[in-house]
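User: Please predict structures.

Assistant: First:
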Amino acid sequence: MQKRSGFTLIELTVVIALLAILTAVCVPNFLSWLPKYRLKRAARDLYSNLHLAKMSAIRANKDCMVKYYKNPDRYTVDLLNKTIRLSDYKSGITFNGPDNQTFAVAAITFNSRGTGNSGYAYLTNSGKTAYYRVGPLTSGAIKLQRWGGGTSWK
């Protein structure tokens, strides 16, 4: 007697049906999660680039400026010759806060001691599902905060 191996048509059909059900459940959840993830990534990148600008100012012993722009939404770090476009993050990331703030000042300047002017930049996505604000204090400390609703930032 010859040994037969493999899958039956019924087993394959059951596996394909299970995969279809899992896909139907997971894809909508993933698509709703993706814009929030991209917004968080854009906020963390801005936070990191502000730290880089601060460290570059200290290392070069001269001022380093981070400039914010609207239309199209982008920012530049002058000592690093770096331009970051918010559209590269997809999901409609823009400078916009819960009260339609964009950024407190058009430019942040860090001096050779790592301190400078203060001011937040506000970020959201096209669905306005979350808001973040990122910016330095006059002491040089840089904050990344998520909007918790009302007037609270966490």
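Second:
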Amino acid sequence: MTLNSLEDVYKDQLQDLYSACKQSLDATTELGRAASDKELSEALIAGSNGIATGMDKLKSLCATHDIDPEGEHCKGMEGLVKEVHAHVIDADFGGDATRDAMAITQYQRMVHYALAGYGCLVAFANRLGLNEDAAILKAQLDETYDGDRRMTEIATGGINKRAA
């Protein structure tokens, strides 16, 4: 697709973020299974639920704009998911807390990618006068920030200390 306008960029990025979420969903679920800390595992499960909710919202927005949510493949998230496997799922660790610390690191990298995507989409929707879209995307952006902050609290609340 030729991107001729901000509306074209907006639609392209809706599809790209949907793809990113789809890819990160399985990786987040795997991280949750790999975590030994109960609070971390529960937070990652909540993260998976949040990603699924975001996918539903993105799919609905794509339908509103007559585009296929599957119309794009996010290579950026593909790389981040490969990192999850290389640095957590398929890696060897000397202790559970060390694995948990790395799981948080990799999860937050995926989350920060999603934060950038949602933030840009909110700005595009606002500029295009798509107020309802902007409100939906902003709510998802806020929930994603909340999940990121929770991971930081879990890391600094004990996992990093135990891993040290």
